[in-house]
Amino acid sequence: MWKYLLPFVAFVALAALFALGLNPKRDLHALPSPLIGKPAPVFKLGDVSDPAREVSNADLQGQVYVLNVWASWCMPCREEHPEMLAIARQHVVPLIGLNWKDDRARAKDWLDRFGNPYQAVAFDGDGRAGIEWGVYGAPETYLVDAKGTILFKYISPITPEVWEREFLPRIAAARKGGA
To answer: Taking 70 as the threshold, does the pLDDT of residue 5 lie above it?
Structure first.
């Protein structure tokens, strides 16, 4: 009897997992992050264009900012890039780039070729800073408040709708002192 019951139970469990994963109400871009509500990990890394220039998010203390994780090898990052340029032109918050697991020369060439929307671009070639931030892949975008607390994490390319719906209200609330 067990030889028939065990495969049936495994099938039911697997079907339940698939059903949960395919739920249309589940937001695939909002993976829970244990860092939401916690202090943003501090990084000090060389700039993509100038390794001697240090980029540190500690310099942003007292400001609401957005950290965008990207890479030159990332096709969704290329899809997202025009929106990052549009966001930078709005001058709503500082936009900081974290170039993740990339080649410095390729990253620099990519920015020269497509435009640089970032106030600063930290080079995280070995991915250690990304690990501390809980990066799963690129692109990922984080919103950090003036106290240095991570308020929000978005996985996937930012679109104008996502920026308007998810980021701008949170930025306004963070500026008023609420999250």
So the answer is: no
